[in-house]
């Protein structure tokens, strides 16, 4: 039987360039909420809900987390899900009208060109 050693691993969180712009454009109180959630995400990469096909946008492999009273979402993916080392943030945006999913879809398309 294996005992829990109590060691908590922190994973590396990185932002794609556009997501970093999203973050920089947030107001102070939202940034505080996002920072707290990212701290949690560093310890648990499966904190968010898996995404699949949203509004005809294939987001398989991505996750979402609600922040700031569920008014915002962070969308991220795990680099090498079999041996997780890096959590890659792809976007932070308002929840309204599911706009964040369209934004992520556009970013996926642009990064695959």
Poorly predicted runs of 5 or more residues: 1-6
Task: Give the termini separation.
Answer: 49 Å
The average pLDDT is 86
Question: What's the domain count?
Answer: 1
Radius of gyration (CA) equals: 15 Å
CATH superfamily: RelE-like
What is the number of E strands?
Answer: 7
Tell me the quaternary state.
single chain
User: CATH topology, which one?
Assistant: YaeB-like fold
Query: Which geometry do the CA atoms define?
Result: globular
Ordered list of secondary-structure elements with their pairings:
Blueprint: E1 12-15, H1 17-24, H2 28-43, E2 49-50, E3 53-54, E4 57-58, E5 62-67, E6 72-79, E7 86-94, H3 99-111
Overall description:
With 113 residues, the protein is of the alpha+beta class. It has a single domain (12-111), classed as RelE-like (YaeB-like fold, 2-Layer Sandwich), CATH 3.30.2310.20. Helix content is 33%, strand content 29%. Strands 1-7-6-5-2 form a five-stranded mixed sheet. Strands 3-4 form a two-stranded antiparallel sheet. It starts with 11 loop residues before the first strand and ends with a helix.
Task: Give a quick rundown of the structure.
The chain is an alpha+beta fold and 113 residues long. The protein has helices at 17-24, 28-43, 99-111; strands spanning 12-15, 49-50, 53-54, 57-58, 62-67, 72-79, 86-94. The protein has a single domain, classed as RelE-like (YaeB-like fold, 2-Layer Sandwich).
């Amino acid at each position: 039987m294996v005992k829990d050693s109590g060691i908590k691993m922190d994973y590396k969180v990185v932002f794609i360039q556009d997501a970093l712009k999203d973050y920089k454009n947030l107001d102070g109180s939202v940034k505080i909420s996002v920072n707290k959630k990212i701290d949690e995400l560093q310890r648990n990469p499966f904190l968010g809900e898996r995404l699949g096909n949203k509004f005809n946008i294939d987001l398989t492999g991505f996750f979402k987390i609600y922040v700031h009273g569920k008014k915002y979402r962070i969308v991220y993916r795990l680099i090498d899900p079999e041996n997780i080392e890096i959590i890659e943030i792809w976007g932070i945006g308002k929840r309204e009208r599911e706009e964040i999913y369209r934004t992520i879809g556009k970013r996926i398309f642009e990064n695959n060109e």
